[in-house]
Amino acid sequence: MIISWDFYEIRSTGTALHGVKLRGTIRKFTIENEISCLMENATDEENVVRFALIADTDPAQIIDFVKKTMPEAVITESLKNIPNPVLSKLRVNDTTRYE
């Protein structure tokens, strides 16, 4: 069975997101709240952190947590229902690349 994931992106124009332990902070929160979550710094875009939740999982808990931690953060859904995801570069998730 392959697990599919929904992707979200965290952005901020005024605050650095890389090198500030954001991924670790979110990871700790998701472990404590028993939420399956993957996280990675984007390598194809500056100052973007991506996280993925198992498809159709409500992201509200994580979004609320991030907004409390970084009120200026903007969180958007970027991709839905992606099997075996690569978070660092979105284009890698286009399965037509392998045909």
Q: Quick one: biggest sheet? A: 4 strands, antiparallel
Backbone structural class: alpha+beta
CATH topology: Alpha-Beta Plaits
SSE succession = EHEEHE
Query: How much of the sequence is in beta strands?
Result: 25-35%
- Euclidean distance between termini CA atoms: 21 Å
Backbone shape: globular
Q: Which value, in Å, is the CA radius of gyration? A: 13 Å
Number of helices: 2
Total individual domains: 1
Q: Quick check: average pLDDT?
A: 89
Number of strands: 4
Looking across the biggest beta sheet, what order are the strands in? 2-3-1-4
Helix content: 10-25%
Q: Which regions contain 5 or more consecutive residues with pLDDT less than 50?
A: none
The CATH C-level name is: Alpha Beta
What is the architecture at the second tier of CATH?
2-Layer Sandwich
Describe the structure.
It is built from two helices and four strands; from the N terminus they run βαββαβ. The protein has helices at 22-32, 60-69; strands at residues 4-11, 37-41, 48-54, 74-83. Strands 2-3-1-4 form a four-stranded antiparallel sheet, covered by helices on one side. Strand 2 and strand 3 form a beta hairpin. The radius of gyration is 13 Å and the shape is globular. The mean pLDDT is 89.
